Amino acid sequence: MSLSAREFRINRTYDDFCALMKKAPSSLVVEMDTVEGGRGNSKQAFLTLFFRNCSLMLIFVIPEKTQECVIEVFDTLSEKLGIQIFQELFPLILTDNGTEFQNPQRLECDRHGVSRTSIFYCNPNSSWQKGMLEKNHEYLRYVIPKGQSLDTYNQRDATRLMNHINSEARDSLNGCTPFRLSLAVKSKIA
């Protein structure tokens, strides 16, 4: 079920997100988006989740760019990881206003109504507010140019692509890879 154009954003705006970050600046933030193939040549899409603290990106193939498909990824992750680990890994998620993300109650809670995350939305037409993920999508586009169909890719292909992207050393990470940095961040938390 979709809420009206404004309802889904109540208490979840970018201003709300900024206010929360001001109170808790060390909060773990995950940026979320979908990547599509060319118009009319792709039914599948990629759901991407990007950890700001280490530049690690997860990629999930979804059969369609719909709320149901995004919720299914969240439910599967919650079930496989367990709700406590999901809450630790994805406490705050910042995304755009795409229709696939406009059921925040169901994204924030699992099938049983247990709270698992908090969703916030960028201002309309302000993808720069989740700019780290947008920039990271360039790595995807080196392999899959914009306009190319995503329908030929399965999760194994997406995982291989994700592993290569996360193994790329970055100047912005002082020569470190997102994968290696994620391990260092994890060891500091544990």
Give a structural overview.
- It contains 7 helices and 5 strands; from the N terminus they run H-E-E-E-H-H-E-H-E-H-H-H.
- By secondary structure, it is an alpha/beta fold.
- The chain has one domain: 2-Layer Sandwich (Nucleotidyltransferase, domain 5), CATH 3.30.420.
- It has a 5-stranded mixed β-sheet with strand order 3-2-1-4-5, with helices on both faces.
- The longest helix has 15 residues.
- The mean pLDDT is 92.
Short recap of the structure:
The chain has seven helices and five strands. With 190 residues, it is of the alpha/beta class.
What is this structure's SSE topology?
Elements: H1 14-23, E1 29-36, E2 45-51, E3 56-62, H2 67-81, H3 83-89, E4 92-95, H4 104-108, E5 118-121, H5 131-143, H6 155-166, H7 178-189
Parallel strand pairs: 1-4, 4-5
Antiparallel strand pairs: 1-2, 2-3
Helix pairs in contact: 2-3
